[in-house]
Design goal:
By secondary structure, the chain is α+β, with helices and mostly antiparallel strands. It contains five helices and five strands. 41% of the residues lie in helices and 15% in strands. It starts with 8 loop residues before the first strand and ends with a helix. Bound molecules: zinc ion.
Protein backbone atom coordinates (compact mmCIF):
# COMPACT_ATOMS: atom_id res chain seq x y z
CA UNK A 1 0.00 0.00 0.00
CA UNK A 2 1.24 3.46 -0.83
CA UNK A 3 0.21 6.38 1.27
CA UNK A 4 -0.66 9.43 -0.77
CA UNK A 5 -2.56 12.62 -0.27
CA UNK A 6 -3.51 14.41 2.87
CA UNK A 7 -6.51 13.75 5.03
CA UNK A 8 -7.43 10.73 2.97
CA UNK A 9 -8.70 7.57 4.51
CA UNK A 10 -8.08 4.23 2.89
CA UNK A 11 -10.75 1.61 3.41
CA UNK A 12 -10.40 -2.08 2.81
CA UNK A 13 -13.39 -2.88 0.67
CA UNK A 14 -14.89 -6.02 -0.78
CA UNK A 15 -17.61 -6.68 -3.31
CA UNK A 16 -20.42 -9.21 -2.88
CA UNK A 17 -18.17 -11.75 -4.63
CA UNK A 18 -15.53 -11.28 -1.93
CA UNK A 19 -12.99 -9.51 -4.11
CA UNK A 20 -10.90 -7.38 -1.77
CA UNK A 21 -9.67 -3.96 -2.87
CA UNK A 22 -8.84 -0.57 -1.41
CA UNK A 23 -10.59 2.73 -1.84
CA UNK A 24 -9.52 6.25 -0.87
CA UNK A 25 -12.04 8.65 0.58
CA UNK A 26 -12.07 12.06 2.24
CA UNK A 27 -14.18 10.69 5.03
CA UNK A 28 -16.30 7.75 6.07
CA UNK A 29 -19.34 9.69 4.89
CA UNK A 30 -17.82 10.02 1.42
CA UNK A 31 -17.55 6.27 1.24
CA UNK A 32 -21.15 5.77 2.37
CA UNK A 33 -22.46 8.28 -0.17
CA UNK A 34 -20.42 6.90 -3.07
CA UNK A 35 -21.27 3.30 -2.21
CA UNK A 36 -24.99 4.15 -2.05
CA UNK A 37 -24.79 6.00 -5.36
CA UNK A 38 -23.12 2.98 -6.99
CA UNK A 39 -20.01 5.05 -7.74
CA UNK A 40 -17.67 2.41 -6.34
CA UNK A 41 -17.21 -0.65 -8.51
CA UNK A 42 -15.19 -3.76 -7.87
CA UNK A 43 -12.08 -3.61 -10.09
CA UNK A 44 -12.34 -7.37 -10.66
CA UNK A 45 -15.99 -8.02 -11.47
CA UNK A 46 -17.48 -4.53 -11.64
CA UNK A 47 -20.02 -5.20 -8.90
CA UNK A 48 -21.26 -2.10 -7.10
CA UNK A 49 -22.37 -4.06 -4.04
CA UNK A 50 -19.46 -2.89 -1.97
CA UNK A 51 -18.98 -3.35 1.76
CA UNK A 52 -16.34 -1.91 4.03
CA UNK A 53 -14.11 -4.38 5.82
CA UNK A 54 -13.20 -3.99 9.44
CA UNK A 55 -9.70 -3.15 10.66
CA UNK A 56 -9.01 -0.76 7.81
CA UNK A 57 -5.67 0.92 8.14
CA UNK A 58 -5.93 4.63 7.64
CA UNK A 59 -3.64 7.49 6.86
CA UNK A 60 -4.48 10.83 8.30
CA UNK A 61 -2.41 13.93 8.97
CA UNK A 62 -4.30 14.44 12.20
CA UNK A 63 -3.74 11.89 14.91
CA UNK A 64 -6.63 10.25 16.66
CA UNK A 65 -8.37 11.96 19.57
CA UNK A 66 -7.01 9.57 22.16
CA UNK A 67 -3.42 10.10 21.08
CA UNK A 68 -3.60 13.89 21.15
CA UNK A 69 -5.17 13.76 24.60
CA UNK A 70 -2.25 11.73 25.83
CA UNK A 71 0.38 14.02 24.32
CA UNK A 72 -1.44 16.97 25.86
CA UNK A 73 -1.31 15.27 29.24
CA UNK A 74 2.43 14.78 28.81
CA UNK A 75 3.06 18.42 27.91
CA UNK A 76 1.00 19.62 30.86
CA UNK A 77 2.99 17.35 33.14
CA UNK A 78 6.22 18.66 31.64
CA UNK A 79 5.11 22.25 32.20
CA UNK A 80 4.31 21.49 35.83
CA UNK A 81 7.71 19.84 36.23
CA UNK A 82 9.36 22.88 34.67
CA UNK A 83 7.47 25.30 36.93
CA UNK A 84 8.34 23.28 39.99
CA UNK A 85 12.01 23.23 39.01
CA UNK A 86 11.99 27.01 38.49
CA UNK A 87 10.25 27.48 41.81
CA UNK A 88 12.78 25.32 43.63
CA UNK A 89 15.64 27.16 41.88
CA UNK A 90 14.09 30.44 42.99
CA UNK A 91 13.83 29.20 46.58
CA UNK A 92 17.40 27.93 46.55
CA UNK A 93 18.72 31.22 45.17
CA UNK A 94 16.75 33.46 47.49
CA UNK A 95 16.83 31.74 50.83
CA UNK A 96 19.42 31.02 53.45
CA UNK A 97 19.97 27.36 54.19
CA UNK A 98 19.60 26.82 57.93
CA UNK A 99 19.30 23.07 57.68
CA UNK A 100 17.92 21.31 60.73
CA UNK A 101 17.73 24.58 62.65
CA UNK A 102 14.81 25.57 60.43
CA UNK A 103 11.99 25.35 63.02
CA UNK A 104 14.06 27.22 65.60
CA UNK A 105 15.23 29.85 63.10
CA UNK A 106 11.71 30.32 61.70
CA UNK A 107 10.46 31.05 65.24
CA UNK A 108 13.32 33.47 65.94
CA UNK A 109 12.52 35.40 62.77
CA UNK A 110 8.79 35.36 63.51
CA UNK A 111 9.33 36.68 67.03
CA UNK A 112 11.86 39.23 65.72
CA UNK A 113 14.76 37.63 67.58
CA UNK A 114 16.65 37.21 64.32
CA UNK A 115 16.93 39.40 61.22
CA UNK A 116 13.99 38.97 58.88
CA UNK A 117 14.94 36.91 55.84
CA UNK A 118 13.81 33.98 53.80
CA UNK A 119 15.16 30.69 54.98
CA UNK A 120 14.96 27.09 53.96
CA UNK A 121 15.79 23.93 55.77
CA UNK A 122 14.38 20.70 56.96
CA UNK A 123 11.56 20.07 59.41
CA UNK A 124 9.38 17.13 60.22
CA UNK A 125 5.72 17.34 59.32
CA UNK A 126 4.99 17.62 63.04
CA UNK A 127 7.35 20.59 63.36
CA UNK A 128 5.77 22.21 60.31
CA UNK A 129 2.35 21.71 61.86
CA UNK A 130 3.47 23.36 65.09
CA UNK A 131 4.96 26.32 63.24
CA UNK A 132 1.73 26.82 61.32
CA UNK A 133 -0.28 26.69 64.53
CA UNK A 134 1.87 29.53 65.85
CA UNK A 135 0.96 31.51 62.75
CA UNK A 136 4.35 31.17 61.09
CA UNK A 137 4.19 31.02 57.33
CA UNK A 138 5.84 27.78 56.31
CA UNK A 139 5.66 26.10 52.95
CA UNK A 140 6.56 22.49 52.37
CA UNK A 141 8.13 21.74 49.00
CA UNK A 142 7.53 18.10 48.17
CA UNK A 143 10.52 16.46 46.56
CA UNK A 144 12.88 19.30 47.41
CA UNK A 145 14.35 18.40 50.84
CA UNK A 146 17.33 16.57 49.33
CA UNK A 147 18.28 19.50 47.13
CA UNK A 148 19.99 21.92 49.56
CA UNK A 149 22.53 19.33 50.66
CA UNK A 150 23.32 18.44 47.07
CA UNK A 151 24.20 22.03 46.23
CA UNK A 152 26.91 22.33 48.83
ZN1 LIG B 1 -15.81 -8.31 -7.38
Amino acid sequence: MVAAGKNMIVFDLACDNNHPFEGWFGSADDFTLQAKAGDIACPVCGSVEITRQLSAPYVNTRSGGKQSDESQMVSVANAAQELKKKFIDHVLNNTEDVGHRFPEEARRIFYKEAPERAIRGTASSQEVGELKEEGIDVMAIPGAPALPEKLH
